[in-house]
Structures are given as C-alpha cells and as structure tokens.
C-alpha cells in the first residue's frame, strides 16, 4: 500500500492536496452545521441565508474536485486511505445533528413511516384527509386521525398534502423502521440512512476489490458533498435503493442472473429507476432463453408487486405517482428544449399545449430506450463493462429527466466511484446552484433561474460529455487511468 522511496516527492504533494481538500470539506460542513438553524422551518424563508448556502456548497464541490479530478494518478498510501475514511465520517457527523436546509420531503417520510408502522395502508389516504377537520367530510378513519394528532407538527408540514404517497413498499419499510426506532424523529431517519450508506460503502469495497481498483477511489463516493448534504442534512431517501442496485450488479458479475434480477426488483421497491438496469443484467442471456425468460418474468412480477399498492389506491388526481409522472418538471435543461420543441409542434398541429408535455416525455423515453439498446448492442467483454454501461444508462436517466433534483444525482455517484468521468463529476460543484431558485422565487424573478442559471449547471457538463465522445476516450483514459 505504501509508495516506494522514488515516489515520495509525488506522494508528499498528494498528501498536501488531499490534506487541504479534506480539511476544507470538514470545515465547510461544520460551518453549515452552525449555519443550519437559520433555515428552521418556523423562520421566515425571506431570512434564510440562501446565497451563503449555495456559495459554501459550490466551494465544497470545488474542493472535492481538487481531490478526485485526477483520482487515477493518486499514489496508493495507507495514510491517504485512513484520511479518506476519517474525512467522510466527519462530514456525516457534521450533518447528523443539523437543521435541514431548504428541504422538507422528510416530513412525508416520517408520516408514511408512522402510518406503515401502525399497520395501516400508507397509499389509501392523502395526509390532508387525515386531519381532524376532514372527518366530517368523508376523510380518513378515526385511527389515522388519531395518528395525525400524535404526529404533532409532522403531518401539518408534509408538502403536497393533497397527494397520496409516491414511495413504493421497500421505502415504506425503511420509513417504518425509523419510526420503530424513535417515532416522528428526523434523527432516527438519519440513522437508518447511515445504515444504508455504510452498506453501500461496503459493497463498493467488494466491487473494487473484485475489479482490482484502488480503494482510494472510494473518495468519489465517501467525500461527495452533494450526497452528504442531500442525504444527511436534507434527509432524502434516494440512498435506500443503492445497496440493492449494487448487490444486483455484483450478483450479475457472478452470473447469478436470477438472484441479480430479484435484487433489482427489490431496488425498484425503493425507487422505480433501477428498472433501466434490467437489460444490463440480462444482456449475457440473450442467447439463453431458458435463463432469460425466468429472469424477465421475475422482474415483471416484482415490479407489479411493488406498484400494486399505488395502483390499488387509484390513479386519479390525488395519486402522487400519476401527478409526478405527468406534470413534474424542475431544474432541467435538455428536457426543456425538447418540451419547447414539442409544444411548438403541438401548437402547429392545432393540439392543446398539454400534448407537448406528453410528447416530450415520449421523446425522452424513446431516446433512453435507443441509448440502452445502442450501449448493449454487444455483450459485456469485461467485468468493467457492466459498470461502465450501468453508469452511462443511469446518467442518461438523470440528464434526460424532466426533474433533475440534486438528490437524484446520488443515483450516479456509486458508478462514478468505479468509472470516474470528469463530465459527470463536475455536477458536484454545479448542482448546488439549484438552490438559487429559492432566492429568485422570493424576489419574484424565478424565470432568471428557470431560463438562465439552469444552463450554468448543465452546459459545462454536456460540453465535457461531447468532448469525451469526440475524442473517443472512455472514462478511465479520460481520467488518466491506465
């Protein structure tokens, strides 16, 4: 693990680089811990130090890139490895007791967890139906209204309270676990997230040992400030799917396709997006129908099982799943261009503007299917191909999506740990600009963000992606690997 004497000057340089970057990341995160009470839910949003938050998060992203931009050139050292683990642990410690900044999705998780833990169906009633004043007008049963009273401020702070929950059963189990540990507690939910985080790290270690990659590359995951902020400060649940996704790919690498498919089906029970990795797992089975048909059938069965509760509750105007799929759009760039084009086409053909939105979603879904087909036109040649193609598919899901929230970027980070790509790593420093939308919204100038600043987030990324494609350099070579 230690570098030889001839490498000492180079190693010393990296000690300084990683030392300063790591210390800077820890310092910035503890500063945000100190700053976070100013974002308390009870305070007037006009008093929130939004610009400061964005500036600190962008600075943290720059420090992170300073450490990982040339990760393949970092000499292996036990000292750097220990430092890497210490810094990542301190980043998480800093936020475990912080006040969530500009995010409140966790109230929905806490409410769903309470409903599920009490043995009731979280998909039947929207939160606002569970308020006491709803009882007289055909609201929820007395048991849920009593639970709403027990929740205190939780149910009153659930966003979009008129919508039933969108989160599938595996997520509901995670929410219920947090409630079982300590009812209505954000800290309890963060402890559950930390458990998924540690398991994800452990599976990445297994994958990197199998692929014979340096463990220092774990810094791509362990130090990522977007992941730390969105998971351990904001409390977003997107981490829940990652251990199952990684488990599926590790099983696929061992040619355990049925078990891998089952693991992927469980991942879909946390978030729907892992569905796109099914073709990656099944690609080696194309000529083996006896194994392919059971695997595909299993995922269809598990997917149906995970979606059945939401379908059973009804796909109406109160269905969070349906409303999200039809109308959600935020922080997008490429999809916005497609939407403009399809809207103009719909108008030209005499259709309502809503057809433009539907058309745009069909276009990007078709583009994603074509992209997956092109990537999988040949079978995996090496074990690394499995991860490379998975990265490119999940990145496409993110970059083509109508909603590109910073916490969705968490889906990509484990794959970047194994296949670091500068174009996608750059998002770590750019995605915090999303929070400027709150600032401009407060001042009645949200269009400055929606039609201006959003391009600052994505144009550099697309430029680097195109440059990587034009030069024909795969991720490792572009990053100096090999």
Mean pLDDT score, rounded?
90
Number of helical segments?
23
Distance between the termini: 18 Å
Radius of gyration: 23 Å
What is the count of distinct domains? 1
| Class by alpha and beta content | mainly alpha
Largest sheet: none
Summarize the structure.
The chain is mainly α and 482 residues long.
Give the key terms.
63% helix; globular; 482 residues; mainly alpha
Structure description:
- By secondary structure, the chain is an all-alpha fold.
- It has one domain.
- 63% of the residues lie in helices and 0% in strands.
- Helix 21 packs antiparallel against helix 22.
- The C terminus is likely disordered.
SSE blueprint:
Blueprint: H1 8-35, H2 50-68, H3 78-96, H4 106-117, H5 142-150, H6 169-181, H7 186-210, H8 219-222, H9 225-233, H10 242-253, H11 257-268, H12 278-282, H13 289-313, H14 320-327, H15 334-348, H16 354-375, H17 383-400, H18 413-418, H19 422-425, H20 427-430, H21 436-442, H22 446-471, H23 475-478
Helix pairs in contact: 1-2, 1-3, 3-9, 4-6, 6-7, 7-10, 10-11, 11-13, 15-16, 16-17, 21-22
